[in-house]
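Re: weekly structure request thread

Next one in the queue (200 aa):
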Amino acid sequence: MPVSIAACGSDTGTSSGTATTTPRPPLAVSFRWTNPVEKLASPDATFVRAFIESWQAVLYSGSWKDEYPGFTAANQGAVGIGQKDTPSTYKSVSFNLEGIDNQGTETTKAVVCLWPGAEEEHGFPTVLTYFHKGVVAPPADQVGTAKRPNVNVFGDWIATRMEQRSGPDPEWVACDQRRPADLPSMYADLPPVPGWPVAK
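Done, posted below.
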């Protein structure tokens, strides 16, 4: 789904993620981004990836235990997720970061397309608003074999709003046009792309 993300700017600073104190249960779903790795290397892209993936992880499992470290602090009213009776059986979800647009103010916008899998005809657009609050930026160059980060990769940035788009919104149309021809099944057990660094 396209995701439009907005950010409020200040000093980016240096990230200093803190490891979680308790082991997290294995994450059932893998998140796969279709962009070249270099397009996902910036602190803004890290924040977008982590927020969208964490939201999806909680959405599919129906449990906040699957949120990424730091998600609760980063999620300042952007999204609320209800509990589910049974978790989703999806194994992989694909995304494309369409772009990040700094509009010269405190607000930045990013657009992401989300495709649950080959079984779904349409992608889904989403609009998220986030702010660069404080001096700690998300880390850059987050790549690895882990399905999720084991430290806080949000920095001290916060998200305050997320909207779902629907047809015939232009972002809905653009998302459908961007849909990969070789999109895998939502039930395929695949590795994450680009993934997250493995805990040391």
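The CA atoms of residues 46 and 85 lie 31 Å apart. Strands lie at 3-6, 30-33, 92-102, 108-115, 124-131, 158-164.
Next request, please.
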